[in-house]
Amino acid sequence: MDALDRDQPALGFGTDSLNPHPPRGIEAVGGATVEAIRDHVMQTCPRVPGVYGMLSRTGDLIYVGKSKSLRSRLLSYFAASNKDEKGGRIIENTRAIQWETQPSEFAALVREQQLIRRFSPRWNVQGVPKRQRPVYLCLGRAPAPYFFLAAKPPQDCVGVEGPFYGARRMQRAIEALNKVFKLRDCSQQQVFHFAEQLSLFDLDHRPGCLRLELDTCLGPCAAACTADAYQEQVNAAESFLDGFNDEPIVALRDQMELAAANQQYELAGRAYETLHSLEYVHRKLRMLAKARREYTFIYPVAGYDGCHTWYLIHGGELAAVAAAPKNAEQYAQLKPTLKHWKAITANPIDRGHGAYPHTLGLVATWFRQNRAEKKRTFLPVQAGRKYRSMPMRHAG
């Protein structure tokens, strides 16, 4: 590898918490010109699954990607037809490329998500057309929970789903959701007074905004509702977040049709835009809810290099990972882990929300795009029979 600037940090992606095999090595190439980097890639990069990172002249990691064929994907950045596109602009800012092979495309996808979350490379979310920063739809913040957006959700939320894309679209959606469910959307600095709270003085609590008067908020700041009444609305909002409640869709559709019937076309147009945003949210929530209900199993994935892996999917999320046993001795060593996995998946009501909640969307999308892979999955209680009878096949 050609020498980079002296202030470049050590190469590498760091530990991989979802790799049950020995750590994967890092390969890297660099050069003073785009042509020099391309030549090094052609000479050394393998045609196997993996993740790659683009480094700037100062050694900063500016982009992370994955591919089921590293060599083909990296060489595509240097194509003349790609010069004015996203890849061309990334490679013009690159002075070194590092990559880490992975045993399968699924493993590369999981590792890519992990690295983007860890390093937030600027070209993964900024300066790239059609690429938007992910946000999560959150319901929480005591004492009066409400819908809000967060890049990294707080730990004490009532519910969190995502990721979603398009901050403007999502902002319209949460404004509508808080209005439909009559939840507050004010700052945490606002003081709240529920109707049942006792006071030494007979105070007239004034609302902090006009939403109470417009009947789009229950008014927990003005003692206009009890804590129980507000909680009922939070429960209904949580049902929407779980993908089971289409009340906001129905309410907005009625509002749009009424405005159009009254020839209030500007109001109808705004309602249509908001409805479009909410329908996107609702579609994704239903997809995620389906994954939470139906995706609890072991997913066996073969590695091109013999690093076969069993992924425990629980409630649609990656919950744990283990090296797939290749013989009776390895299976015996894995039995305590499988016993733990059985305990994790024993409760049919428990639907995830484990150590890797951000993997829900990844898992749901993977099995939607690779429907045949679902047929290869099995429950932890079936592991003993399956590992002997099911030949491992490379996924991706």
TrEMBL record:
| Taxonomic superkingdom | Bacteria
GO biological process terms held by the UniProt record: nucleotide-excision repair; SOS response
Which CDD domains does this UniProt record tie to the protein?
Answer: GIY-YIG_UvrC_Cho
Region named Disordered: 1-24
The UniProt entry, under InterPro entries, shows:
GIY-YIG_endonuc, GIY-YIG_endonuc_sf, GIY-YIG_UvrC_Cho, UVR_dom_sf, UvrABC_protein_C
Which GO cellular component term is one of those annotated?
excinuclease repair complex
* Keyword field contains 4Fe-4S: no
Keywords of the record, alphabetical order, are: DNA damage, SOS response
Do you know which Pfam families this protein is assigned to? GIY-YIG (PF01541)
Put simply, this protein is called UvrABC system protein C
What is the protein's species of origin? Novipirellula galeiformis
